[in-house]
Design a protein that fits this description.
The complex is a heterodimer of chains A (44) and B (361). With 44 residues, chain A is mainly α. Chain A has one helix at 3-43. Chain B is globular, with a radius of gyration of 21 Å. Classes of the chains: A mainly alpha (44), B mainly alpha (361).
Chain lengths: 44, 361
């Protein structure tokens, strides 16, 4: 396999990892958002 | 098919409860976590009032921890001395927890407090687990070997009244296990959980016990904490429903055995991400249910005692007339079921070794 092909594959894998990580961190942020917003609204 | 719970006064589907408790049992056997922080929210979703869900789950945890602890006792992987020190703190913490529970029940806010405690705890554990497992995946990919200090000392290690714990080979202040027990007991009383998710990391990273003694000792502590929680809930509020406890215990003991067997065969570290996501989802569901769902006036079932069957009538009268003995009976019932399950498991394991596994020559 040529060097350029390996580079492209690595780039795709890195992009995929970044995508998964961003997804998971947004899910965590959404979860905390719902909980904190709910607590704020309820106790206000 | 639905059955009426005579103490909680709601109709539930026994198949749903059996399946859910078996599923939670499988998860706890697979990941080595107690199932309380998943089963109590599930019971609440099934319509059991939070105050009843907490009490009955504590009784279920008693049975499963007796079962697990007996297995560790048979393997001699228990540190009794350390366990008793944590139990001292646990008893004080439980009493404080029940006092707090009574206060919030008195002002009519106990259901909100339980829901809030669950959503925050689930969100915190879920986030920590997710971040940790993502970090592990990253490290495994990059082949990073992390250098760690052999011993990290916190302020808790400088406390006075040090004592020797020969089995764990430790020389530790008695206040360290007592303080940890205090926190566990308090949370267990309010949330109806065993507290292993606090106890296990604390035993490993703060007390620095040998890892092989941690699961057995943690289960040993859980027995005492859940006995006190069960008894106090039963005596103070009459909230233990033996009908619900039977379904929970049968499902979870079966599930835990399946989960432990599965854990021996598959690598559960990759599945940790899924468990973390499940915890976050349950946390969000509780948050939605508490804050944003429309107030639905729940149907209150009034079933006169004449309509109840013999078993339900017996439970209702026993709980009302003799709360002290009813509490003791609930505890003994869970303990016997737990010990029975452990011995049946050992018997079946010996039988399997004798007849199905060929000896290597």
């Amino acid at each position: 396999m040529s060097l350029s092909n390996i580079k492209i594959l690595n780039k795709i894998t890195n992009k995929k990892n970044t995508f998964i990580k961003t997804g998971i961190f947004s899910a965590i942020a959404a979860c905390w958002g719902v909980i904190l917003l709910g607590t704020f609204i309820t106790f206000k | 098919m639905e059955v009426f719970l005579p103490i909680a006064e709601v109709f539930v589907s026994p198949i749903e409860i059996l399946l859910l408790s078996a599923l939670v049992g499988v998860l706890s056997g697979l990941f080595g976590v107690g199932g309380g922080f998943l089963m109590t929210p599930f019971l609440i979703f099934l319509g059991v009032p939070p105050a009843y869900a907490v009490a009955n789950e504590a009784n279920n945890i008693l049975a499963t921890s007796v079962s697990g602890s007996t297995t560790h006792w048979l393997k001699n992987t228990l540190d009794y001395k350390m366990g008793f020190m944590i139990v001292i703190g646990g008893s004080i913490g439980t009493a404080l927890g029940i006092y707090t529970f009574t206060y919030f029940k008195g002002i009519g806010k106990i259901d909100t407090v339980i829901s809030l405690a669950y959503m925050y705890i689930l969100a915190i554990i879920g986030t920590l687990m997710l971040v940790e497992s993502l970090g592990e995946i990253d490290k495994a990919k990059k082949n990073v070997v992390e250098r760690k200090k052999l011993h990290v000392h916190y302020w808790i290690h400088g406390l006075p009244f040090r004592m020797r714990f020969p089995k764990s080979k430790l020389y530790e202040s008695i206040f360290t296990p007592i303080l940890i027990g205090l926190a566990v007991g308090f949370i267990a009383a309010i949330m109806g959980i065993g507290g292993a998710f606090i106890l296990v990391p604390a035993m490993i990273y703060i007390i620095k016990m040998p890892t092989r003694l941690v699961p057995g000792t943690s289960l040993f502590v859980t027995i005492f904490v859940s006995v006190i929680v069960t008894f106090l809930h039963s005596f103070n509020y009459g909230s233990i429903d033996l009908m619900l406890v039977v379904m929970l215990v049968v499902g979870s003991i079966f599930g835990v055995q399946v989960g432990q067997k599965l854990g021996e065969k598959i690598d559960s570290s990759g599945l940790k991400v899924l468990l973390a996501i499940l915890l976050l989802v349950v946390g969000i569901a509780i948050a939605y249910d508490t804050f944003f769902a429309e107030e639905i006036q729940k149907e209150i079932f009034r079933v006169s005692s004449a309509d109840l069957n013999f078993f339900s009538k017996f439970i209702q009268e026993f709980s009302k007339d003799m709360p002290f003995f009813y509490g003791l009976f609930s505890i003994m019932f869970a303990v016997l079921l737990g010990i029975g399950a452990a011995f049946i498991r050992r018997f079946l394991s010996n039988l399997r070794k004798k007849y199905f596994i060929k000896p290597t020559k």
